[in-house]
Amino acid sequence: MKTKQIAVIASGRGSNFQAIIDAIHTGTVPATCAALITDNPNAYAIERAKGAQIPVIVLDYASFASKTEYEHALLAAMHRVNPALFVLAGYMRIVGKEIVDAFSGRMINIHPALLPAFTGLHAQRQAIQYGVKVAGCTVHFVDDSLDGGPVICQRCVPVLDDDDEDALAERILAHEHQCLPDAIRLFCEDRLTIDGRKVRIR
Ligand code: GRF
User: How far apart are CA 128 and CA 194, in angstroms?
Assistant: First the structure.
């Protein structure tokens, strides 16, 4: 299988990014990672990229005069890297419409909830507060809605009676680390087709 180029966009700790790096190294995901793009100069994801010799592009959000200027710089950086697939792995900002349109069908995101439940920030806290018995994670294509694009894969975990937000987040995270590389592998193997709201997996 010919490898595809991917690039990762992340804002923080980067444990999902590490899961991708590891899956590429073991050959589970037939890809090379062309770049890490981050909006946060202090993101631990940068150390992970350095450890794997992956080029890093830092676009410090705080250094831009407006969200519009930041998004223009991000769009330009994305065009420069121009991989087959962008992976949002803990990217903590909403992607603007111009970027979504430019990379439609080529950008995926991991969300720590069973979408369409609990979109946006603090999904695990929302799940605890709602009192659901099952939670999980979703990998989906990015469209211009909040966490609303076509779903590629989901995994569920139980919510236990004495779970707090951190305990649930940790249980979900272990599944994110499998679900996200799985989705990238399917994309890189040309096995995903978007058919309206549905993602068909060959
Ligand atoms: C993950 O739970 C991801 O689903 C959410 O933010 C968290 C990022 O974790 N969007 P990490 O940076 O990958 O460790």
Answer: 32
Torsion sign across C-alpha atoms 101, 117, 177, 193: negative
- For the segment 50-80, what is each residue's pLDDT rounded down to a tens digit? 999 999 999 999 999 999 999 999 999 999 9
Q: Which residue type sits at 103? A: F
HEC-encoded secondary structure of 53-100: CCCEEECCHHHCCCHHHHHHHHHHHHHHHCCCEEEECCCCCCCCHHHH
* Residue 111 Cβ contacting ligand 1 at under 6 Å: yes
pTM for the model stands at 0.97
Ligand 1 atom showing the smallest separation from residue 110 Cα: 4
What total of structural domains would you count in the chain?
1
CA dihedral 102, 105, 110, 115 (to 10 degrees): 110
For the segment 78-128, what is each residue's pLDDT rounded down to a tens digit? 999 999 999 999 999 999 999 999 999 999 999 999 999 999 999 999 999
- Centre of ligand 1 to C-alpha 80, Å, is 25
Domain ranges, residue 91? 4-201
Report the CATH number that the domain containing residue 82 is assigned in CATH: 3.40.50.170
Q: How far apart are CA 44 and CA 78, in angstroms?
A: 21
Q: Active site includes 122?
A: no
Separation CA 165–CA 197 (nearest Å): 30
